Amino acid sequence: MGYEFSLDDVAYLRSAAGCAALSALADLPLTPASRLADVARARAVAPDRFAAVLETLLLRRRAAAKVDFADGLFTDDAVQQATPRPVARHRAERFAGRVAHDVTCSIGADLAALPEGSFGSDLDPVRLAMARHNLRGSRAVLRADALRPVSRDVPVVADPARRDATGRRTWRPADFAPPLDALAAAYAGRDLAVKCAPGVDFAVAPWADEVELVSLDGQVREACLWTGGLATPGVSRRASVLRGDGSRWTITDAEPDDCPVTPPAEWLVDPDGAVVRAGLVRHYAARHGLAQLDERIAYLTGPTPPPGVRAFRVVEHGHYTEKALRSVLRAHDVGSLEILVRGLDVDPNALRRRLRLAGGAAATAVLTRIGRTPTYLLAHAERT
């Protein structure tokens, strides 16, 4: 856990003296090697608040990739749980033209993306003080318990903390703060959006009308549980794939999911993690004319890969044994090997060491199971 800020710390950091200290120390390296020198210099500038100043400088650097508060105030947990800008904007689009209430607004990062007139609340007075600083009056915030509604007739947004009382990350919805079921009960009948970690078991939220998995540049960033008028009619599962360049696409379970199971074809496609996590692999295959290698494995195959993805042009494939793979790699003069494993108990790093590759070519080895047969596919990765 990071430094525990107090209200006095926040007041100092917002003051002229605090701003001057932050400015004077903004060029500190803040590396493990420079720690002693950084602390000594910070003590000289802000003797009574040097720890708060150093933590704030460090958190600002970490937060820069996620939020737009250039001179913001943060806690360590808030930065870890903050939503990247493109994902927050994507989620906020469902509230277009509506005022929303963020009932776990924390330091204000997600609240800032919601439509004008939206407001937030939180139980933590320190985070609320930081939110007031970060939002600069653009959104109202108040202290309130998320499980005791203080608003009516507006959609609700929540992002429960996913750490237990000891500060350890938890995947049990009952340990969220507030707990997932209690949150749903408190706002039963209201339009509700709950941000969760993508690894959450959706079976624990039967009250959710739509579950959306969102990825950004290939990394699954969040699951959002939508209810009521915020959910899309006829859709229970959605995957939204965002790119840093602003492009995006989405797929839902309302689309056809008819796809065959075939042997490997010219191309192998590994669907985006949001598609896999949302259980939409067959829908994605049907959309792009692909087939499954195995009904239980997410790899897809076909004559043409979808545009804009990293796909694998298959060179050859066969029954996988370590001896067979080593022979194939030597035959193709492979010395640099990417190893992808799905459905087999193989440690890629340990396998690479045992293979002792010495060739001059680069390739990808995909190790998977087709039916009961462990299978290798030797391929070359290409961006389509």
TrEMBL record:
Ranges for domain THUMP-like: 309-380
The organism's place on the tree of life at top rank: Bacteria
Example of a GO biological process term: methylation
This protein's UniProt keywords: Methyltransferase, Transferase
GO molecular function: methyltransferase activity
Record InterPro entries: SAM-dependent_MTases_sf (IPR029063), Thump-like (IPR041497)
Coiled coil: none
Protein name from the UniProt record: Class I SAM-dependent methyltransferase
Organism: Saccharothrix algeriensis
Origin organism lineage: Bacteria, Bacillati, Actinomycetota, Actinomycetes, Pseudonocardiales
